[in-house]
Amino acid sequence: MTQNNFLSNEDALRRKAHLLLSYVLAKYDLDMLNNPIGEYWCPVIDMQEYENEQLHDALISFSALMRVNDDITGGFKAHKENNAEGVGTLNFKETTGPLSLREACNKIIHCTKYEWKLTYSKEHPIYPKYREELYNIENWQQYKKPMLLVEGELYDNPWTAEVNILKYILAFGFSTSH
After folding, report:
1. How buried is residue 81: exposed, middle or buried, by Cβ count under 10 Å (0-12/13-18/19+)?
2. In what order do the strands lie in the sheet with 113-121?
3. Would you say 175 and 63 are in contact if contact means Cβ atoms under 8 Å apart?
4. pLDDT at 1
5. Which of 49, 107, 128, 144 is the most exposed place for a label (fewest CB within 10 A)?
6. Which long-range contacts (CB under 8 A, 24 or more apart) does 117-123 make?
């Protein structure tokens, strides 16, 4: 929706979520388009030159807008109440626990190092429980389950976090009025 020819925060967030999700899922397939022999130039390599920069920009702008929307709406509180497992795990001061949506935004924005881990799972990456219960479907398909590993420091104490990026991206609805 637009207001006075400007995108609302919700529209901007949806667009950023779509862009980030598209970039992340494309990471799985772009390498497969490269020349398998590697002996000569391939146009995919030229395109991939920009992949990390664009993905990083999309990730940071999405995370920052999520935080801003949460500051306005307080919606992450509802996410935390309904998703005790969070969107990943946080290791800080020799303690490991669930990574809340707000913490994930902060860790992504302030990390000093990050790495993509492109994994697969037989379990549906977003709705494993409901999919099986509601539709009685066995989990036989391989699903893409991208994870983001981030590192940083807080008051000279190192921390690491592992973010289930699909859960993270799709949780944007909690920072909107839905």
Report:
1. exposed
2. 95-98, 88-92, 157-164, 143-154, 113-121
3. no
4. 40
5. 49
6. 117/146, 117/147, 117/148, 117/149, 117/162, 118/27, 118/28, 118/144, 118/146, 118/147, 119/144, 119/145, 119/146, 119/147, 120/144, 120/145, 121/145
The pLDDT value given to residue 123: 78
Q: How many CB atoms lie within 10 A of CB 9?
A: 18
Q: Give dist(CA 111, CA 80) in Å, integer.
A: 22
Q: Do the strands 6-7 and 143-154 form a parallel or antiparallel pair, or are they unpaired? A: unpaired
**Structure tokens that stand for 106 in this block:** 């902060």
> 83, 173, 162: which is closest to 130 by C-alpha?
83
Say what the pLDDT of residue 88 is. Answer: 95
Residue 23's beta-bridge partner residues?
none
Return left, alpha or beta for 136; rule: phi > 0 is left, psi -120 to 50 is alpha, else beta.
left
Question: Rounded CA gap, 144 and 119, in Å?
Answer: 6
d(C-alpha 18, C-alpha 10), whole Å: 12
pTM exceeds 0.90 for this model = no
Helix locations, the chain, DSSP H: 9-33, 43-48, 51-73, 76-82, 101-110, 128-135, 165-170
* Residue 60, both tokens: 């940071």
Instruction: Collect the ranges in the chain with pLDDT lower than 50.
Output: 1-7, 178
